[in-house]
Structure formats: structure tokens, C-alpha cells
Amino acid sequence: MKRVDVVSAIIYDEEENMLMVKNVKGYWGLPGGAVEKGEHLHQAVIREVKEETGYVCKVNELHSVREAYFQDKKHHALMITFFAEITDGQMSILDPDHDIEEV
What is the pTM assigned to this prediction? Predict the structure, then answer.
């Protein structure tokens, strides 16, 4: 079974609105995605948030670590979620995989 590490970010604004992205499959979730080979977790969070939302973020503390098994893909996923905050940028979708349709 292939191991896949996935990161995501919980980001709130001053009014406690949460930043979410809508996948092309129609569901909303936290910005995030797979960690690339040789990439640190914090680097992956920053890259994924930028690609999916256009925002630059600062990674804060760890929120949670979960795991899941996807038998159909034969993947063992470790999902790491961090609290983060926006430091720059503007809302736009820069996702090279074209998985995101709305922020």
C-alpha cells in the first residue's frame, strides 16, 4: 500500500469566517493537498494554500493528525492539518491540477 502525506490549513479571518475551497467534484473543504517528495510539511501547506486560493499564509500550530486507508487506490494517507493565517496575496485560483473551482 502506497503512503501519501496530505496537508491542509484552517484559516479564519477577523470575523471568524473560514477559508474554504470548492473542488470540481462539488464539495467544499480546507485548502491543501499532497506533500511533494522532499518537501517539508510547512512548505507544502504554504504552497497548497497559494495554489488553491492565491493567498500567502504563515503556518502556526498543529491542529490534528489523522490517517485513512483508501482500498480502491491502495493508499495509506496521513492527513496533517495546521492552523495558519493569511499574510499576503489576493483571492485567485492558481491550481496547476485544475481541481479547484471556487474559493
Answer: 0.92
